[in-house]
Amino acid sequence: MLREAIVVGRRLQIRGVVQGVGFRPFVYRLAREYGIRGWVCNGERGVEIHAEGEPGALDAFARAIETRPPPAARVATVQSAPATVENFAGFEIRASEKQDVPTVRISPDLPVCAACLRELFDPADRRFEYPYINCTDCGPRYSIILGLPYDRPNTTMRDWPMCEACAAEYHDPANRRFHAQPVACAQCGPNVVLEAGGSARHGGSAAIREAAALLRDGAIVAVKGLGGYHLACDARNSRAVTALRERKYRKERPFAVMARDPDVACEYVTLDAESMRLLASIRRPIVLAESRVDLDGVAPDNRELGIMLPYTPLQHLLYAFGAPELLVMTSANRSNEPIAYTDADAFERLGGIADAFLIGEREIARRIDDSVARATKRGPVVVRHSRGFAPESVATLPVTEPILAVGADLKNAITLVVSGEAFSSQHIGDLDHFAAFEAFRATIADLCAMYEVRMEDLLVVHDAHPEYASTLYARSLPGRHLAVQHHRAHVASVLAERGCWDERVIGVAFDGTGYGDDGSIWGGEIFEGSVRAGFRRAAHLRTALLPGGDAAARFPVQAAAGFLEQIDGLPDLTAPPFVFPAARYRGALELARKRIRTFPTTSVGRLFDTVAALLGFTRETTFEGQAAMWVEHLARASAPAAPYAFPVCESELDFRPTLAAIVADRLRGRGANEIAAAFHAGLADAICEACAAFEPHRIVASGGVFQNTLLLELLDARLGDRLWTNAVVPANDGGISLGQAAIAALTAGV
Ligand SMILES: [Zn+2]
Ligand SMILES: [Zn+2]
Ligand SMILES: [Zn+2]
Q1: What predicted TM-score, i.e. pTM, was given to this entire model?
Q2: Alpha-carbon gap, residue 543 to 414, rounded angstroms
Q3: How far apart are CA 170 and CA 747, in angstroms?
């Protein structure tokens, strides 16, 4: 050696999603590449590295950790500090130690990676056509974890001891499958079974081939996925799609589809670069995109189609064995029930729906639906936070005590805050379904157990609605309790995503239903304030009446009666061009006029229903938000139209001139598309005018109404960068729990 190399020591601490994603073997390989000595292990707050080497090599090593981490990892921070040189001879991976406070994050489930796919279709590979192939870069995580630390005995793979060949890979630090907990092969691991007409057919790929053939023939096949069963059928076979709708009791709600590959996806929907990136991302969500082909019965009256790409090896095999290129892939359940995820439950609930079952032998630890997302001008936006996203941290809150926020009753999801990290659960569903309520309770117990949080130490946050099932359950838990008003939680969810606690903003929360401070049904609220200082109700939609209570949310005509009751000189709406069903409309109008069984409301969701009714949607809705989506769908087909008058007087957004104009325009014969467009423009103007009355510069919009992308685009054009909306959690009630947690963290003195 010509000169003595200077060797220094450095201690690196990596935080983020760094466990269960092949991070330690990655660091091991990098260390060898750069000639670094020392060790790596899972520490208290992520991955810890002791590195010794020449300063230049150490810098390059640290840079590489940040710039080219494994595909599933997300490096939040890399902290570096000098360390004493201990003259290690090589580099080693040290065993993970069980920590007192587990702040290590659980990775979401991952789609099969390119390297595994190559092996899957390589006849020479020992995992050729093996449907459970995976490695540290891919495969199940959250859906198989039974407890922490994330090791094989704590997963649903515990019943499948590894064969010698798999064990050798598992123990070799240089191997892609080093410590890949679900590693398996056809010799030692689970396989799939097809059950059709009572005759079980074992034998892996033969079962998958048979399922693909059944799908080609128009059958409905229940296929076990990562977080539950899907019901699959040929999306281009209208008889199969119709049969699925009838058997599933799903009248009109759109079905999601899965395309064999990106090229096939492009034939059915318009995908810009951003949508394509989202579609192929490791999240693999259902992406909402404009449809290019009208598929009979798949997404009726909807300009968008929810589309995804295969993400499990089994799905890839189905396509390779000739399944139709575009499959309906809908959560296996009846109507709005939660997705079936155990085999017994699937058989019981889907017996009358599926012609055959493709059953994977690996158990699913918890139900996780597919996520739904959309690429927008503002970047990707999550509409349903579930597989591929949950249970990762969605925000960091300035709090050390644990908080449990239980969300709202519709589109429920919960958030557990541990050491300031807000872990949002997968989508749970509507809690009026018993099975969803059970899932809600199980998810709370599950996340608390996983992060070793004791119930009695929790601050439990719930909606202000005294009769919500989530509220009643929250109040039955030990610990302290805090109620947070629904619409304030919506606004806070946006600010929590950005970690903005003190900035004064105008918060616009528009949705269908939320319990107001005065006990009435709110849903068109404008606030002023900050998360820390609280939000003052500054303006709202003019109060209307909701005749007949809950049913008004299902019958747009009934909601319309409560709004139109305030319009003078109304024509007979049971006559053309309106043709409201006479009995329901007149009955509701009567209730509204006499103030019998009516409830005051400021719901913008019901205002959309009213407009839908006036434009011809006079039947019952079959899923939440359907009428509003229909109005947006109409407006999209129109050129931009001049806004209807929607004045703001004395902090009230007055819908009367708009509704009167719509009635008059309809009588005059103006097209429904143009009217819908003018309504959207008027509402956007009203929001801007209302906001202009208050001082804060920043405008925050949240609530289910802001899933309307046309309304958002109109606001974007008027407000630009001043407008903040949700991206990480849904704008609908799926994002409520994050907002609840944020308000609790900042105001409850925890
Ligand atoms: Zn892989
Ligand atoms: Zn094996
Ligand atoms: Zn809401």
Answers
A1: 0.91
A2: 31
A3: 48
